[in-house]
Amino acid sequence: MIGLAALVARGEVRPADLLDAALERMGQVNPALNAVVHDYSEIARRRLDQLPSGPLSGVPFLLKDMGAEAVDFPASHGSCLLANTAFKMNSAVYDRLAASGVNVFGRTAAPEGGVGAATEAVVYGGPTRNPWNLSHSPGGSSGGAAAAVASGIVPAAHGSDGGGSVRIPAANCGLFGVKPTRAMVPDGPYAGEGWAGMAIEGFLTRSVRDTALLLDIVAGADLGAPYVAPEMPCTFMEAIDRSPGSLKIAICDTTLTGAPIHDDCKAAVESTAALLADMGHEVIPERPRADTDAMMQAWTKVVACGTALWVRTALAKKGRDLQQGDIEGVARGAVAYARTISGTDYLEAVETIHAYGRQMAAFFEGIDVLLTPTLAEPPPKIGRFAHTTEDYVAYRTGPEGIFAHSPFTAAFNATGQPAVSVPLFWNDKGLPIGVHLAGRFGEDTRLLSLCAELERARPWFHRVPAVSGVDVEKT
User: Fold this and answer.
1) Which of the following CATH numbers is that of domain 2-471: 3.90.1300.10, 3.30.240.20, 1.20.810.10, 2.30.110.10?
2) Cβ neighbours of 257 (radius 10 Å)
3) What's the rounded Cα separation, in Å, for the pair 131 and 134?
4) What percent of the chain has pLDDT over 90?
5) Using CA atoms, how far apart are residues 195 and 305, in angstroms rounded to an integer?
6) Beta bridge mates, 284
7) Residue 11 CB coordination number (10 Å)
8) What gap in Å lies between CA 408 and CA 430, rounded to an integer?
9) What residue ranges do the domains of the chain occupy?
10) Residues with active-site annotation
11) pTM attached to this predicted model
12) Longest alpha-carbon distance in the chain
């Protein structure tokens, strides 16, 4: 997207040309993908002559269909109950993005309430599909954003991440996805701390450089924020041109609890570890001993209560009780489970999550970065994580549940540490297998420096899928 902005700045293309190209591409691939679910192209066209002259002026952009609240862009949050919700004020993150000059023309699909590792919400009329293979899911909850970027509709898109919701779809779609340190990106004024501080806005891009600029644009506390992230030693754009130094990197080729993972995911970690060693970093096998099972049980309680809250708030605004078809099975199960959780149970869950953060921080005293796969398995087939079941707890933590599929990402929502999924590996079926890097709390720029170093050593920008027989343009 930086390259597109430079073309606009030099007068080589007009913002209208870029919007036309994005809409043309959307018309080609979106019927197969179901990635962009709110078309606001008429608003984008009316704004062509009013775009601020910021660093991304004229670049087409997409918002996830939850978060980044904006008056001009209603959202459905993946739910029939919340379909076409209008907002009375803009969020801080949207205002900062808008000031950069991006031209928002739509919102992208997400699972109901953002709790799924696949994007198949009923409100959108069908599943969102993976551009690399339409029988597979792009993941969730920022699945529509990932599918839109990977298929070439836009070079970058907004997402959010409360348990891996940026990094999971980045891994499934061969993209770079970042979850910054807690409070690095503003969450107000609509939320003070989403999911007890575990949820944060982020981005999916095809390059580390684009992510760096987007973080520079949005980073920093908003008015009245309850938490403030540590100050960075440099900008993110400066960081990607700096060496991270010689790092001590722990490699874990099992889950964080020691369970085996799919051979493709293990191969991705081993390949990346060898690359890091060749680059001069110290790579050691080591697994954190933090109580990940207890953290995930606590995470499941917190998110159930968060789901019950948005359902109750929506019903109160409508002035009625829950009706058939309002919400899907997983949300119904979460609401039922939340009724069994007392106030003291909830606070105990939050304390468990905080204790986990301290346990993991102690582990990171001896290392700089933890390397794992992003997921324990390749991209799942459509339907595996559909929201039809009402057994919310099993959906999250059962032997075939999301935690078994994604046992790494939520750990760093709990700790608040920065973490990324990097597209360094594809399996023999042509599906992306992401690798996951987590850094110390507040060391976001150092982590981005390492990612830029990896991108230079093993470039991935040329790796693009084909959708419906149309090759993705290398924008």
Assistant:
1) 3.90.1300.10
2) 14
3) 6
4) 97
5) 9
6) 250
7) 7
8) 23
9) 2-471
10) 64, 141, 165
11) 0.97
12) 62
